[in-house]
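Reading is simple: the token line describes the chain's fold. The lines below illustrate.

. . .
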Amino acid sequence: MPADVSLAAVTLPGFAAVPSDPALRSLADFAGCLARLVEPLPRPRIILGHGIGGSIALELVQRHADLVDGLILHAPVGTRLDRRIFPKLMAIPGARSLGRRLFASRLLRPIVRRMLFSRTVPAHYLDRFFEEYRQCSAFSQMFDLITPAWFQGLRPTELSSALLWGEDERLLSVDQLTDYQALLPCAVTRRVPGWGHFPMIERPEEYAAEIASLARSLISPAADASGSTDQDEPASPLPLAGAVGMWGPMVGLMGAGG
């Protein structure tokens, strides 16, 4: 990240290799867990949510909007679940456990890699990616918590926000962006040519620059409202809290120098 942006990467219980927490039984519980991690961080705060992390970020702003100064959603999971094939397949008994093992198996990795990534990714990073996916104990639970009924129950919010999507997204089609505009009527939208679902892996420097730029644009009104005009005061980094996508919620907390 640029020097004026600090990223607090969050891996919630049940994602990657972090042990699950039996107390987390609803999406509200996961949002509450995230809220407790966010609250001690300095303001202004921007939440970055990708994939399932975007779902948890949406729930966070529904219940703990006072903790958040801005929201960046990057290809979140939530809309059109009743029309997508993958969630329907995961409703078949045993499919979730089998699907997670097959997805992470070394035998099928070359095929899955071609499905997910359009660029070459270092082998050691791919090994970590698939291993953390295999260890993601919350994978099955998320299909029970992120449902059409949950999405339909979300209330629109005028929080300063941004919607980010790759135009080459293969997992969550870019036209889904319009569904989130109804929930975030004040959101700026950014469709990036050439990006798939994991630009943070395939194009890390480009992704960091894009996220930092969006965060700065969301924070500017908050900085103006603070009334701070002391140019001699060194700018503190903008805190960004982030959550992981498919294999662990990508939640990031972001702040910008004022």
Q: What stands out?
A: DSSP finds eleven helices and seven strands in the chain. Residues 37 and 132 are 21 Å apart (CA to CA).
